[in-house]
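From: lab user (bench 3)
To: helpdesk
Subject: output format question, protein + FE2/S2 (inorganic) cluster

Hello, I'm new to running complex predictions and I'm not sure whether the block I got back is the full result or only part of it. Here's what I submitted:
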Amino acid sequence: MYVCLCHGVTDRDIREAVENGVNSMRQLGKELGVGRQCGRCACTAREILRETKTSDYLAMANMLAQPA
Ligand code: FES
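Helpdesk reply: Thanks, we reran it on our side. This is the complete output you should expect:
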């Protein structure tokens, strides 16, 4: 789904950016332009950012918890 209509950014674009190291709304704005024009997308983008970071963290924690 489109999150930022001003810059044509989808939720998938945001998740990919987080997987490639984007860690904050400021970085997301620099990379994709999210929240840099009208700002209506900021709340949704922040939620996707938080959700993706949490799921990445849990996946890594589960991987590290596995016996070698
Ligand atoms: S919808 Fe993202 S800046 Fe306008």
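A quick orientation on your result: Residues 48 and 54 are 10 Å apart (CA to CA). Let us know if anything else is unclear.
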